[in-house]
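tool=predict chain=A
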Amino acid sequence: MYSFWGYTPHFEIYIAESLLGIAVPLAEAIKETCEDDYERLRHYFGGLTPDDLPFRIYITPGREGARHSSCGDTGLYCDAFGANDGVLMRYLVVAEADEVFMDSQGRGWLCDCSNGEGLSRVLATDAYPDVFGFFTAGCWLNSPRTDFVSQVDGSDGNPDSTGCSALFLNYLRAQLGFSWPQIVQVGAYLPPDKQFPSLANTYANLTGRTDAFDSFYSLVTRRFPYGVQAELPTDNPFPINPDLLFYARSAGIGQLYATNLAGDIGLLNTYTNWRTTWTLIVPMHFSRARHSDVLFYNADAGLGELYSTNGLGELNPIVRRYTDWRTSWSIIVAGSFTGNEFSDLLFYSRAAGIGEFYRVDKQGSLTLLASHTDWLTTWSQIVAGNFSRSDSTDLLFYESADGVLECWTVDGYGNVAFLHSTPTSHSWNIILPLNATGTPFSDLLLYDSAQGIGELVTSDGEGGLRHVRSYAGWRTNWSVILSPSFGQLLFYSAESGVAQFYEIDPQGAMTLRRTYEDWRTDWSLVHTGNFVDHV
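tool=predict ok
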């Protein structure tokens, strides 16, 4: 038996009579956020209003999860577990309510099958990333790795198929850069067919390509080799960019390498005829290929060159040359600022206080989206990441003089809006976006060379940054810090030619995996990318 406790415009909340003495805080937690969660789901599903509202939430004894009698049933039964975790209850409500949205939408997200169960969980995790205990990607990685991308498992209780689905959906979101509304709204059918839904269809609708499982599997296997026990405490190990691009400006040399989690590196290709005047090199994605493309910029000449790569660690012939660019661009940032499948670009001139956003098409043509002429002339670093639930890539601006980290959102037209600022007490030389904690939002590793200290922070999804771990006693001469893959860090000192690979866990604990003492000391730029399928 259940007793009515309260309501909101779209929810009624009931408590099992056996829990009336202890479950009121759970009901209060649900009531506090359920309307915001409802509106977020409506946004993801294109403004859809489900049938048979209001939702009826039943807080019931149990420790298994949540359920409803059918995909379209708005009566949601949520187990109270220990009756002491309101955030968990909110997660369960979202995980069941989004299945009702799927049913009303009718585009192939089947809540009682693997693709719908996977979507149910990733959207709930997006809303409440601090809830653990429902991740299943590791189950699939430690299984025979059956292809549940091209086919749907007709069960929502198989952790292998649910894990594959959740992992693939996070691949679409965090690796390829599609937003949740894009992923959700294209559905799982190939038009006009409505008989055989699959995640491969979702991928094809988004990218126009048919290599869904192959591209996903080859990348995931680079980070998690088949047959090796995978330790993955999350469903989101992306992005994975396991290859490295090195550029020695003084010698005009470029080299591409592949890496693995142990810190082994293998040479893919050497170029001895690169210009000695490249100011910036930016890995990005403009082509329909699944590998990284590369943008080169020479400030002295106002020159830009755009290249694709072939999946064998080689650059293809030049795609586009730009001869009329500003000579004062200080920073170029690639990101999904318009929400399409290709990288957009932000150009920032510190001298002029100008920021310009451009869309890049698959031929390499640039279209100006917005020009901002009133930006500060003191930004020392601009970092792209996912710091909010925006549909586009967010930006973090850092001014070393005042030590403030500012998060801004970007709409699909290149307009920016301030989100949150976080004061710090150090002068950070390097700010690295990475995925260490496995949440849907970006982490940041901050490095102060003068004091030899570091700090790991994570975004709260609202633009705020939360401390995870502090580090002391670091070398004071690291010139590059990168994260090739989930849980991996590379430190390089141009002064000493020393490089070290570390593994980092979700709590920020670091374990040294490999040290090199014989690297070139003239590497000017080092970047991560995805330049080869199999090593």
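The first strand starts at residue 2 and ends at 8. The chain has three domains: 1-105, 135-238, 243-327+388-529.
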